[in-house]
Amino acid sequence: MMIQRIQTLYLLIIAALMAVTLFSGLAWFAGDAGEFGLYAFGLKTAEGELVQSTVYMGVLLALACALPLVTVFLFRRRLLQIRLCVVEMVLLLGSLVMEGVYYFLSWRVFSDLTFHTQGFKPAIVLPLVCLLFAYLAARAIFRDELLVRAADRIR
């Protein structure tokens, strides 16, 4: 693992932010029936009782958390790293879509209940921030590849 490379830091930041997204709440609903929270693996009551499973979103977020760690250790295969960064960006876009879909579905589950308030928690936007870092990592890896090719040409 080469921590001195900036793309390694970007990839580690992505893994950390996605771990925060994976283990913290994404949205909340409060009303007459009580409080509910949307998490990566389920829609839960305030007591922690599972109301609806969101395991597909959880798996997608877990993959988006693990892939940057795998990418860091493939530092000798820069072209593969670039491809994995693109896959990471697709996973992050998919996780944003899944978050929106499950928020809408959670809202629809409680359509017969009256909610006073509902909203998003800050962790729901972290995949968007990670998308920026994944782009920066891919760009830095590409620059490294160009630098290595230029050095090979000089020899």
UniProtKB/TrEMBL annotation:
Q: Which InterPro entries match?
A: DUF4293
Q: Which Pfam families match?
A: DUF4293
Q: Does the keyword Transmembrane helix apply?
A: yes
Q: Where are the transmembrane segments?
A: 9-30, 50-75, 82-104, 124-142
Keywords recorded for this protein, A-Z: Membrane, Transmembrane, Transmembrane helix
Know the name of this protein?
DUF4293 family protein
Protein's organism: Alistipes shahii
